[in-house]
Amino acid sequence: MNCLVIGLGNIGVEYAQTRHNMGFMVLDAWAQASNISFNTDRYGSIAELSFKGRKFTLLKPSTYMNLSGKAVRYWMNELNITAENIIVICDDLNLPFGTLRMRKSGSSGGHNGLNNINELIGTQNYTRIRMGIGNDFLKGQQIDFVLGKLSDEELAQMDELSKKVIAACKSFALVGPDRAMNTLNTRQKE
Predict the structure, then answer these.
(1) What is the per-residue pLDDT across 36-74, written as a single tens digit (0 to 9) for each?
(2) Which is nearest to 149 in space by CA: 34, 10, 4, 53?
(3) What are residue 109's DSSP bridge partners?
(4) Which residues are catalytic?
């Protein structure tokens, strides 16, 4: 099985370590742990690795968040990968920080990156891992919140959260999305 794993985020140093770039942060952690590096390619940065006979292509789109579907569609076609074999990792302000949710399909939940992917690949039937960022912002301050830097306390948790998301991606490829979801979606200990 070949899997395309997309971490959503925005390119540029001004977006590094922001809530909206948690997908990028997970893929960076995976590449570092696997001793591989990303190469700049069409519509994004790409890295490839194998795990127990499964091939993973990691993609960090360079199209900016709201146009992520362009990169996803291009790489699905280029690699001949179906929607059932992609995983999109993104932030989610509807979940408390530290909460992780994996789903095999569903709506965008108002996430512009997912909206664009749904529109350009023509389906919502792909796996996504949502990483909770909470919603501690005043009315009208949503953009500032999602583009805001993670706190030191939140950054300290990213290593462990990244490990859980990476393990879920590997589990997805090895045992399928249902069992991977059962493992990742278990209630987090308080």
Answers:
(1) 999 999 999 999 999 999 999 999 999 989 999 999 999
(2) 10
(3) none
(4) 20
Q: How far is CA 180 from the centre of its chain?
A: 15
The answer to whether the beta carbons of residues 65 and 14 sit under 8 Å apart is no
Tokens coding 8: 């959503």
Cβ neighbours around 71 below 10 Å, total = 26
Each residue's pLDDT tens digit, 126-177: 999 999 998 888 788 788 888 889 999 999 999 999 999 999 999 999 998 8
Please name the residues in contact with 61: beta carbons below 8 A apart, sequence gap of 6 or more: 6, 8, 9, 43, 44, 67, 68, 70, 71, 72
* CA–centroid distance for 12 within its chain: 17
pTM of the model as a whole: 0.93
Indicate whether 182 pLDDT > 70.
yes
**CB contact at 8 A, 69 and 107:** no
Domains, the chain, in order of start with CATH, read 2-184 (3.40.50.1470)
